[in-house]
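From the pipeline queue, job 12 of 40. The input is one protein chain; the requested action is below.

Action: predict structure.
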Amino acid sequence: MSCRRKCAFLWISCWTGSVRRLSGNRADKPRNSVFLAKQAARLNDGTRRRTRMDQKSTLSIAALMVTAFAIGIDFTGAMLLVPAIELSFDSDITSTQWVLNIYALFFAMTMVTGGRLGDMYGHRPVLMMGLVVFLLASILCLVAPDLTVLIGARALQGIGAGLIWPCMLAFGATRIAAEEEQGLVMGLILGGVTIGNVIGPLISGIAISFGDWRYFFVANVVLAIVSTIAIRATMPKEDTHKPEEHLDLLGVAVMAIAVLLMLYSLDVGADLGWTSAPIMVMIGVSFALVLLFPVIENHVKEPLIIPQMMRNREFMITLSLNALQVPAIFIGFLYFPQFMQKTLGWSSLQSALGLLPLTALLCVGSVLSGRFYNDFGPKRLLLAGFAFCAAGAVTIALLPNALGYFQILPGMILIGIGATLSIGPAGTAAMCAVKPERAGLVGGLSFMVHLVYGAIGVALATALMYTASLARLAHDLAVDNIDMSDADQRVINGGALATEQAKAVVSHFDATQVAQIKEALGTAFSSGMDMAFAFACLSALVGLLLSALLDEKKLQSSNT
């Protein structure tokens, strides 16, 4: 039975069962006033109990939605802070990208462990612990004296979010509402995240317009405090734990080290040289650890990914499809605001508003993707979604810079539509590829792969962007007969001459030359962004190929 038919069958069974319980067997009912009076009293008593339950559940759901909103704004909002952080700490894009990547990596690597800890010791205490970590990390982000401390604080935020997310979903799915209301509760929680994703960039724009990117983390602190108080006051304590379960800490550590080495090599590769010994060693060790991971999973008691699942072709395809569309979205969130600020000269708030076509489409898509899945099936949706993502990336790379905002707007819309058609269906298809009792595990793995590949994609795209923009900058300066050393070109590359180091570099040029340098920087940034989206297009094309290889019949009949 297909996933769609299973869902329909379960829904019809629940509905008809409820009708039978309410109506009963009319042939067996005594037709007298005493019976009717008893039935009426029983129904009224049940209604009163249900009303009390609904009032209590509403507060719990509201608390989870606030928590989900805090997670949502933190992810997308931080992406808009990158130019302001560069200026504040006098750094470049290859360094500030760690503010984003370290959060995504630690969030992803903690998430599965956080879910297991919740099963072992109770979701409420682990959720509370995650909120405390998130709160303390947000305060540290607020007062960070340098970029290194900020990156460390973002790693702690990722750990806190990784503890919060699975336990929050577990509460929503099992502890708050009756079984027939769980879909509504989960939809409200995910709605809180989605609203946060949309509002996050606006909060960032407002914070920067008030003069300091740090104000964004004030929202994190306030929401974390409100969530902690609300969760403590409304969440029921659990009486069933599974302390006998085990954590696959070795598997998590191996994957985390592999990804960290890859991210760091992509960060410093342009400076040290891509063929230099340190870079080659780090990349080699990273690949070796990735190859070692399946061996480890075959020998641990409770592996992160069950070996039988690795041998399930449809599952591995759908798990990959959860990742391959992510670079287009993450790169868009990172580079669209920078393009608007560094090339078009927009303010942070204007950039946040300019990003609305993408965020609005993602918001609407989270609501509609489930209906699309039932109507069209996963394969057609995935094919269309990856085709739209690839087309969007191509338009950004090919449209001329002279179009200004309209260079990126068509691509923004196409990527938003493509994400709508592919993100939700890819996750659902992955869960359809395994037994129902493994759906929770697969949900966590899908999101983990989503975030990890997103971080790697941003790092790789940034390395490509930096290298391409540096080459274009050198070319344009040479055409303008501006003599600038390679070291100075590296200092100003990817920026807008706003940092102290950049100002020092251009201080000995006259006004005409400075204007030429600014124009060359804008053109170089656009060229680098084009190269970043070329990688996003390649990733989407691989997703398109894998979508074509997906066998829906095997997907629907899997027993792994």
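Job complete. The first helix runs from residue 3 to 23.
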